[in-house]
TrEMBL record:
Membrane spanning residue stretches: 20-37
Trichome birefringence-like C-terminal domain residues: 143-430
Coiled-coil region(s): none
Protein name as annotated: Protein trichome birefringence-like 3
Statement: the UniProt record of this protein carries the keyword Nucleotide-binding: no
Family: Belongs to the PC-esterase family. TBL subfamily.
Location of the protein in the cell: Membrane
Length: 432
């Protein structure tokens, strides 16, 4: 399920494609011919034409090309015709995961002091590490490398607030860990609250914050979490309790999904009832979700100034509870998976298309220009990257007996860190 880019131009992409093809064909033929020339070494060393990226799609004859380009770089230029990242033209959901052992994660669960034990898979005993070395390669453009210093400069003098559930908290922790190592100890701090946690980079006068609101709208399970979904009651027409924490923020990143998927119906109420929460009605989850998201959208449209604040919405983070989805009927949820499922367009039962459609429809009707971070399709492939049994429950890391019961105790909802949320943040920063 893809989102149409808000201001994307299909005609522009088509134009680009037609422009590049003849150039690439000419360059490819020339290059292949040279490979079979006995004097290729002499030509490459003496002819300056081959020391530049002669097939660059931006300007094939640019004098500013790197004259020290190697043979590998020339080959890559011919084969990789993707253009530089443009959020209005790049469809981030169209791509593939590419294994790259040379990747060096910017942090580990031992080096970053801000990670919860819930997502610290290596520290909790996960034996394999391959899940950390996959890069998301977008089909039609290149995703910029994550540079902590550049990111902090972009956030200089600003407040960035992630709002949502534990998946959103994972994205917040990921971003904090990706930048904190270059900040001197005396220039960073963290203040943890029950609902609101703030990491500060003092030198940059910037903060990266997280606010807990799993439904975005008010509920009786916001502060004291109610474990039984059947006892949760939502006030689907109000964000008043939470929104006071969202005002005055420069960059807001919202999400809400997995808490809505705990049953077919959601106890919901709205308006003013003499009997308060007892005035609820049982609504089908997509219907309740739509009302709640409209409530959120109305708050954004009414209260946020687009000239001062950026607003993002991260689409649903998929779960992988049914191994038959990825043609492994004998699997134990996501437990034995060690690499992504590569079938193009794979969409498992852990991603609700009705919910995805609601997000698309509601946001498309908003006055405020919300940027959608469509991470669902790329994350669907990552059956390998969840915390599995290398996590905690009830504040305690799983013991050996619990880890042995992989069918019942594998967490196929949350992601190990470093991991998939790092790529979400790479995409998010590229939008800033």
């Amino acid at each position: 399920m893809s989102f149409p880019p808000s201001t994307a131009s299909g005609a522009m992409k088509a134009f680009r494609g037609k422009l590049h093809f003849p150039i690439i064909m000419v360059c490819a033929i020339a290059f292949i011919s040279l490979l079979y020339t006995e004097r290729i070494g002499i030509i490459l060393s003496s002819n300056p034409f081959f020391k530049v990226k002669s097939c660059s799609k931006t300007n094939a004859t640019s004098k500013n090309q790197n004259r020290n380009a190697t043979l590998d770089k020339l080959r890559d230029t011919i084969l990789d015709d993707r253009f530089e990242f443009d959020p209005e033209e790049c469809s981030i959901e169209n791509g593939k995961w590419v294994f790259n052992r040379s990747i060096k994660p910017l942090y580990s669960d031992r080096s970053c002091p801000y990670l919860d034990r819930q997502v610290s898979c290596v520290k909790n005993g996960r034996p394999d590490s391959g899940y950390r070395y996959w890069q998301w390669q977008i089909q039609d453009c290149t995703l910029p490398r994550f540079d902590p210093e550049v990111v902090l400069k972009k956030l200089s003098g600003k407040r960035l607030l992630f709002v949502g559930d534990s998946l959103q908290r994972g994205q917040w922790q990921s971003l904090v860990c990706m930048v904190e190592s270059i900040i001197p100890e005396d220039q960073k701090s963290i203040r943890r609250g029950h609902s609101h946690t703030v990491f500060r980079a003092k030198e940059y006068n910037a903060s990266i914050e997280f606010y807990w609101a799993p439904f975005l709208v008010d509920s009786n399970s916001d502060e004291q979490i109610i474990g039984n979904p059947k006892e949760r009651i939502l006030k689907v027409d109000s964000v008043a309790k939470h929104a006071k924490y969202w005002t005055g923020v420069d960059i807001l990143v919202f999400n809400t999904y997995v808490w809505w998927m705990s049953g077919y119906t959601i106890k919901s109420y709205w308006g003013s009832f003499p009997n308060g929460e007892e005035g609820y009605e049982e609504l089908e989850a997509p219907a309740a979700y739509r009302i709640a998201l409209k409530t959120w959208a109305n708050w954004v449209d009414t209260n946020v100034n687009p000239n001062k604040t950026r607003v993002f919405f991260t689409t649903m983070s998929p779960t992988h509870m049914r191994s038959a989805d990825w043609e492994n009927p004998d699997g134990m949820r996501c437990f034995n998976e060690t690499k992504p499922y590569m079938k193009k367009g794979f969409w498992g039962t852990g991603s609700d298309k009705k919910i995805m459609r609601v997000v698309s429809e509601v946001i498309s009707k908003m006055k405020f220009p919300v940027s959608v971070l469509n991470v669902t399709q790329m994350s669907n492939y990552r059956v390998d990257a969840h915390t599995k049994v290398y996590t905690e429950t009830g504040g305690q890391v799983l013991n050996d007996e619990q880890k042995a019961d992989v069918l019942h105790n594998s967490d196929c909802i949350h992601w190990c860190l470093p991991g998939v949320p790092d790529t979400w943040n790479q995409i998010f920063v590229a939008h800033l």
